[in-house]
Amino acid sequence: MSDVHFLEVQGLEISAYINMPGEATKTLILVDNISFTLKRGEVLGLIGESGAGKSTIGLAAMAYGRAGCKITGGTMKIDGVDLLKLSSKEINKVRGTRVAYVAQSAAASFNPAHKIGDQVIEVAIEHKLMSKAEALDYAGKLYAKLGLPDPENFGNRYPHQVSGGQLQRAMTVMALCAKPDLIVFDEPTTALDVTTQIEVLATIKYAIKDSGVAALYITHDLAVVAQVADHIMVLRHGKMVEYGSTDKIINHASQKYTQDLVSIRAMEKQEQPVPDSPAILQVNNIAAAYDGVTKILNDVTLHLHAGQTLSIVGESGSGKSTLARVITGLLPPMQGEVLFNGKPLSSALKNRSKEQLRDLQMIYQMADVAMNPRHTIGQIIGRPIEFYFGISGAENRKMTIELLEQIELGEQYFDRYPAELSGGQKQRVCIARALAAKPSLIICDEVTSALDPLVADGILQLLMSLQEKHAIAYLFITHDLATVKAISDSIAVMYQGSLVRFGQKSMVLSPPFDDYTDMLLSSVPHMELGWLEKTLANRKMQSADN
Amino acid sequence: MNINFLQSLASHLSWGARIGLFCLITFALAAIFAPFVAPFDPHQIVGDVWAPITSQFWLGTDQLGRDILSRLIHGARNTFFIAGAATLISFSMGTFLGFLAAVTGGKMDQLLSRANDLMMAIPTLIFALVVLSVLPANMIVLIVVMGVLDSTRVFRLSRAVAIDIVVMDYVESARLRGEGTLWIIFREILPNALSPLFAEFGLRFAFAVLFLSTLSFLGLGIQPPDADWGSMVKENKDGIVFGIPAALIPAAAIAILTISINLVVDSILSRTSSLKGGR
After folding, report:
1. pLDDT band at A532 (very low <50, low <70, confident <90, very high)
2. What single DSSP character describes residue A319?
3. If interface means Cβ-Cβ distance under 8 Å, which residues of chain B face chain A?
4. Alpha-helix runs per DSSP H in A212-266
5. Contact A419/B12, CB-based, under 8 Å?
6. Which of A206, A407, B136, B158 has the greatest number of beta carbons closer than 10 A?
7. pLDDT (tens digit, 9 = 90+) per residue, A466-523?
8. Do residues B27 and B76 touch, judged by C-beta distance below 8 A?
9. Contact B195, B269 (CB under 8 A)
């Protein structure tokens, strides 16, 4: 490896032009005065919340600005050549051959109508770097190197015939195929389950090391980037917060914002003892299917006590959201029963009493679509109060404002529309809407998954303080084990529609583990260096992906 | 405040839309103040048969010697009122049933949708001809028949729009709350379906004007001596053989009206369907 800085970025500035009809064009600076350097074989992690400008910087490394964005200042030199001064023809040559890009959603980046192999070698052939036979041969070697099954024939499959984790690896092969000098990874593991993420992460790390390319690794998850990056740059609102070696950022962060990011997973709830009272929610031997044949849920039995939190964890497709639909009455089960406050709940929604509906509320993952965009916040929160308690007019307004204050928003939000709120604020409004019905149980379906870590942390703290105040029970559906640790009293682990493990938190999270729980727990990235290698070395079970 | 709002609205409209809006307002004003604006009594014979355009008869006279401009202005009342009322009926019926089909789903959806298909399978014009020749010829019957026949198109659109909205979490959340079907239709779905429906309203109004004109041309719409633009084309059509342009003038009025509506609707549609902002 040479000592020269292969990639040099100086004072990069990227702006967006906002054109509102009838108004003068406004310029918004998205990325402000960013500088960094990168040697061959090195990985720089770019980290920040959404809107921090990390993807914009990543794309700028390919001299590309999204629609409406423009690189307005600075230099971006690869081997001493300033990319920003090249003509569009010369840049086209650079893209794909010298700089490659791995996108977040491999599923959306592959064309479903063509075989994976043809798409993987396209760049190499398009730029006449290799003949087709050479490219196919090279791709085959890469498939094998990155641990894809049946490497000789893998390229003959179509994108829908392989799993999400494999597709993400195929995308890495696509980037490597033209033997680039720099690869930009844009949240390559964010859309994957934890158990799959760990293997893709290991693959990417191996691929970078093996081919000796430089890489930019963009993510919002500090624990993930700590596993692959040599240096980390923390970004916020388009500005650099901190830049240093991975060790320095993780262990000796100097900025408050970085320290917050590092300590984010530290929150933990004190487990409540099991009360003697009967459970508020009792699910008995539930089996359910959407088509009446293929069982999504298989003989699930669990219970939840008043004022406590039960977390249901599992990968996507494990049936956790389906369980929520059965409990809410949206999907009548094939067998089994749901007892709520000791009384059986009717399996169909329309046969449930208004009182039962009131007592069981739900909060959704995507706050954006969980609120009617044409109702004001006041209408959204006020409606359950009017509907269940028959209170309208000034009294309703007063109660709504009280709720707004409980979720730390306040009266000025009363007349706003959901589109005028940030993601975290929207989720708070959804919490207030559920709270307005004065329920004794709230089902939270991945309520923090779509939020940035610090914002999600705030939401969890709000939920916990509300639980203390109103003694609400939560049924918390999530795939994120850090969240589970932070809020649960009891935990249910689900795998392929069955309950693998259920009990108090201290019991579920302490050994001896069953194989699946062990794999799930060990897959959660830790905020420490070298965790990835250590974990992979002592695993009991391979993920479903392999 | 109000003037400011109008100003900002006007500044957002394209030039085409402004021209369209100007034409529509002119037509509407002429129709409202017809007795004051029209130079002659529309039923009175005031000149020669098919007199050419002169300073006395701005648009000439028709096959009986009546002033075309006056008949056009009075005819606008009929055209606007009947087309407008028919469109309103078709929209109230079509959207309500379309939303109902989307919200309830299952058998109800099948029943309504297949009945709608059945209606659409019969050519509208022939259907209208049969029904109108059986029923008594008056304005109410005409409006209702036009409205009901047109509602099949609106039903399809509103069902398609509502089906996309029904699967949203906020509708599910309203259902979980225990809200009734009417609340879901009018409070959750309707506000979110307004932009495409509004655009369609303008288009359907234009179609209603054309449909009314067609019916009048065939003798089943407005009955003489009253006039609407379509029946004026019919009355004067024989003149074309002799090179007399009297029939083209009401035809041009229909064309201008239709184009104007489309210009305005297009502009509003491109504005309200913008991705920015919650309203």
Report:
1. confident
2. S
3. 8, 11-12, 168-170, 172-173, 175-179, 187-188, 191-192, 271, 276-279
4. 222-228, 246-251, 256-262
5. no
6. B158
7. 998 998 999 999 888 888 888 888 999 998 888 888 988 888 888 888 888 888 888 8
8. yes
9. yes
Bridge partners, A303 (sequence order):
A282
Q: At what angle do helices B15-32 and B248-272 cross, to 10 degrees?
A: 130
pTM of the model: 0.78
CB atoms within 10 A of CB B273: 10
Q: Which of A349, A358, A369 sits opposite B168 (nearest CB)?
A: A369
Tell me if A459 sits within 8 A of A426, measured CB to CB: no
Is residue A500 within 8 A of residue A517, CB to CB? The reply is yes
Cβ A405 vs Cβ A281: under 8 Å: no
Residues 6 or more apart whose CB falls under 8 angstroms from that of B103 comprise B162, B166, B181, B184, B185, B189
* One-letter identity of residue A335: Q
For residue B157, the model assigns a pLDDT of 92
Collapsing DSSP to helix, strand or coil, B106 comes out as helix
Beta bridge partners of B63: none
Residue of A nearest to B188 (CA): A372
Rounded CA separation B13/A530 (Å): 61
Residue contact A354–B178, C-beta within 8 A: yes
CA distance linking residue A273 with residue A275, whole number of Å: 6
- Return d(Cα A68, Cα A70) in angstroms, integer: 7
| Structural tokens at position B248 | 């083209």
Distant-in-sequence, close-in-space partners of B200: CB < 8 Å, separation ≥ 6? B154, B157
Give the pair of three-digit tokens for residue A324: 């929520």
Q: In what order do the strands lie in the sheet with A295-304?
A: A295-304, A281-289, A335-340, A343-344
Q: Which of B250, B230, B234, B248 is nearest to B82 (CA)?
A: B230
Residue A516's pLDDT is: 85
Place of tokens 């993952």: A365
What CA dihedral angle connects A14, A46, A426 and A404, to 10 degrees?
-100
Q: Give B135-170 pLDDT, tens digit per residue.
A: 887 889 999 999 999 999 999 999 999 998 998 889
| B68-87 residue pLDDT tens | 888 888 888 888 889 999 99
DSSP A332: -
> Which value, in Å, is the radius of gyration of the alpha carbons in chain A?
25
Pairing mode of beta strands A69-78, A7-18: antiparallel
- DSSP for A476-536, written as a single string: EEES-HHHHHHH-SEEEEEETTEEEEEEEHHHHTSSSPPHHHHHHHHHSPPSSTTHHHHHH
Contact between chains at B172 and A384 (C-beta distance less than 8 A) = no
CB contact under 8 A, B278 and A383: no
Among B13, B63, B110, smallest CA distance to B232 is for B63
Report the Cα B162 to chain-centroid distance in Å: 23
Find, among A507, A490, A500, A36, the residue nearest to A274 by Cα: A490
How many Å apart are CA B243 and CA A246, to the nearest integer?
89
∠ Cα A230 A235 A241 (to 5°) = 90
Q: pLDDT (tens digit, 9 = 90+) per residue, B206-253?
A: 889 889 888 888 888 777 778 888 888 888 888 888 878 888 888 898
CA distance B53 to A5: 85
